[in-house]
Amino acid sequence: MLYIPTVVALFGLSASFWFQKNPYLSYLLLFLGSFFTLAGTNRILKTRLMILPTSPVSLEVNNAGNQVGIKLKNGKTVELIKQVKFFRDLSGKSIGLSGLDGTGRLQQYVLHKGQFLTEKDYESLTKLFIKS
Predict the structure, then answer these.
(1) Phi, psi of 17, deg, nearest 5
(2) Beta pairing partners, 95
(3) Residue by residue, what is the 3-state secondary structure of 60-102?
(4) DSSP state, 57?
């Protein structure tokens, strides 16, 4: 949630530099603020609130952990069949999955601990990927 104060600060500094007759720095800060706005909106709507149609809602993992089926909110299922990689953050509150689907496109998903029904489900998934 640090996107909001960061974006406000970038836009405020951009306006300040604009009126101080330093337009180039103002343009840079305006660009950064716009970029952070888009990136933050996408992250909040897709992973935190799960509003976008490409938000993951369920996982199906084989026992080896080398193939993952991800069901999206729009009803489509994406199969990660090659180069499946698992990433875990240091705090243990979210995980990342990446891999190639059947068409060879790289897909990346972030799943948060709160998306799982129980903490046991989350822990079993992380243990499965750590083993493989």
Answers:
(1) -70, -30
(2) 88, 111
(3) EECCCCCCEEEEECCCCEEEECEEEEEEECCCCCEEEEEEECC
(4) E
For residues 97 and 109, the answer to whether their CB atoms sit within 8 Å is: yes
Q: Domain coordinates of the chain in residue numbers?
A: 3-48, 56-131
CB 54 within 8 A of CB 74: yes
Model-wide pTM > 0.85 = no
How far, in Å, are 3, 60, 128 from residue 124 at the CA level? Answer: 31, 13, 6
Distances (CA, A) of 112 to 36, 48, 76, 105: 21, 8, 20, 23
14-67: pLDDT as tens digits? 999 999 988 999 999 999 999 999 998 988 888 777 788 888 888 888 877 778
The DSSP secondary-structure symbol of 48 reads I
